[in-house]
Amino acid sequence: MISYHVSLLSLSQQTLKITVSVPAVGDVISASLPAWIPGSYKIRDFARNIGEFSVLNTKGEAVNWSKKDKQSWEIHSNNEACEISYTVIANDFSVRGAFINDDYAFMNGTSVFIDIENTPDVKRNVFINTCSAPSSWQAYTAMPSSPSPDSANSFICNSYYELIDHPIYWGVATVKQFEVKGVTFDFLLSGTQPIDINRITEDLAPICEHHLSLFGAPSPIDYYLFISLLADTGYGGLEHRDSTVLMYPRFDLPLINEPGPASDAYIDYLSLCSHEFFHTWHVKRLRPEVMLAPDLSKEVYTEQLWIYEGITSFYDDLTVARTGKMSPEHYLTILGRHLTRLYHTPGRAKQTPMESSFDAWTRFYQQDANSNNHIVSYYVKGGIIAMGLDILLRSKSNNRVSLDHVMQYLWNTFGKNEVGTPDNAIHTACNALGVNVDEYLSDVANGVTDVDLTSLLNEIGLNLEFRGRTHSSDKGGTPCDNPISNDFGATLSQTPQGLKVTQLQQGSAAEKANLLIGDKIIAANDWLVTEPLFMRLIQSQQDHSSIALTVARQGRLISLELPVQNAQQKVAVVSIKEKPKYLQWLGLEA
Ligand SMILES: [Zn+2]
Questions:
Q1: Distance from the alpha carbon of residue 283 to the mean position of ligand 1, in angstroms
Q2: CA 427 – ligand 1 centroid, Å
Q3: What spacing in Å lies between the alpha carbon of 52 and ligand 1's midpoint?
Q4: In the chain, which segments carry CATH 2.30.42.10?
Q5: Is residue 286 classed as helix, strand or coil in its secondary structure?
């Protein structure tokens, strides 16, 4: 047994103290902290937050140790038991790290628990030292309680992988329990605030039921914990085997005594919960072969993230619509927004979703202002591929096979027994179900071809159209009578020195003018401009004559000529043509 004792060391320094009791496991103990956390494919070097490392033997004498590299230590324990202590700086306010404030300490094991090499099957114990924190703080985790007298603050699991897959929330919380299909859910909101937790859990229960029914009995879980870290701003979600951690703006959730229809932001929150709970099957148990026991010290590459994040992105919104928690019309608004985002990504013609998956570590997770022109999101394109695949399967099989059946096949063949999926898992599943979609998949997932949704959506009674933008941050999804006629093709933000170019679309007028990201547009045709005036001037050039720009670039004033171009028709709007067909596809019979 390896035991971890967790104490709050200093609130204002945001530090924890961890003491690890290690049994005699050899002359030299190798200890290390992961460089990344499963589900978030970026090297984060969590060990940079570790300090004041020391080791004592059972007699209380100092034991020699040395640092091997940025994240590992070598301890000369002489084959005796020892106690390793260190502090952890916990000031990463995200779902991925560790964070302390006056309400709580939130911990991912990858940030706080060092691993001891060559002890894969040694049980791990966690003790929360409640005396070190305010008495109102309580520990919440999906990690099983250990059979100790202090079972509320003491937890146990079978391996290090299990340990780090059970984030711990220790603090003040608002919690509501509910049960669906024999599974007990705890739904936790950080801190105390006037949020209507009863309404949220009532809305969430049918979404959980949908996923449990989709993958079928027996359920792989009997307990699940939703942890929401509420913030003023901030957004995120990270999946675990038996829990999830979400970050969301608190006042985007419904307040107590605030009846009325769900806001768009609240519907998005339900989709986020739906997304993370779907991962309980799809990526936490059913997963790529290389993710069964991944090396956490360095990047682990897979071409399958489009399968895991794309299909999950498709089902997250779809489930909220299938369960009636968003209207069929609102689902189309969201679909239109996803398509608008995709069609404003020139990088989709350069990077395949499989390449995007493989290079997630250095490209998708490390984007800059220009990334859109060079890469494609495996979430967004993957979600559209999943939708296209579902319609194609239904159409080719005369409605005998849908993506639901592919999910069930994958779960029963791979996920249930935790066998890793090969790169061609979707091809294999579809072929096994008697539908050949090889050409579609090689075009859209292994190639850069757009999913032909215009004709596919027709088959389910929907109509896809494109229009110009109404303004530079037009997200699409809804019709509009007066889109702009001329477009600029860049995103701007107002600064005291002028309009700063924050993003620039390949093929746009802004590119043809040789503008660079970071340039500040000061004047157009010698008029000092704000964004509304600048857009009006562009619209007013009906003869398409160019506009003279005065631009500040890295401390110099330069002149550029901006051609005036017709607005591109890339804002997607999906409308209903044959409602019964559409409702039938949604699973809501007319
Ligand atoms: Zn996800």
A1: 8
A2: 21
A3: 35
A4: 486-566
A5: strand
Q: Are 172 and 136 in contact (CB under 8 A)?
A: yes
CATH 2.60.40.3650 in the chain is located at 2-171
Q: Which of 460, 480, 459 is nearest to 469 (CA)?
A: 480
Dist. CA 307 → ligand 1 center (Å): 10
Range 232-265 burial, b when 16+ CB lie within 10 A, else e? eeeebbbbbbbbbbbbbebebbbeeeeeeebeee
Query: How far apart are the CA of 279 and the centre of ligand 1, in A?
Result: 7
Residues in the chain: 590
Question: Which CATH number is 486-566 given?
Answer: 2.30.42.10
* CATH hierarchy code of domain 2-171: 2.60.40.3650
Closest CA to 157 of 243, 47, 43, 87: 243
Ligand 1 centroid from CA 266, angstroms: 18
What's the 321 CA to ligand 1 centre distance in angstroms?
Answer: 18
Q: What does each of the 590 residues of the chain score in pLDDT, given as a tens digit?
A: 999 999 999 999 999 999 999 999 889 999 999 999 999 999 999 999 999 999 999 999 999 999 999 999 999 999 999 999 999 999 999 999 999 999 999 999 999 999 999 888 899 999 999 999 999 999 999 999 998 878 789 999 999 999 999 999 999 999 999 999 999 999 999 999 899 999 999 999 999 999 999 999 999 999 999 999 999 999 999 999 999 999 999 999 999 999 899 999 999 999 999 999 999 999 999 999 999 999 999 999 999 999 999 999 999 999 999 999 999 999 999 999 999 999 999 999 999 999 999 999 999 999 999 999 999 999 999 999 999 999 999 999 999 999 999 999 999 999 999 999 999 999 999 999 999 999 999 999 999 999 999 999 999 999 999 998 887 778 999 988 788 888 888 989 999 999 999 999 999 999 999 999 999 999 999 999 999 999 999 988 888 889 999 999 999 999 999 999 888 899 999 999 999 999 999 999 76
Ligand 1 midpoint to CA 306 (Å): 10
d(CA 95, CA 243): 12
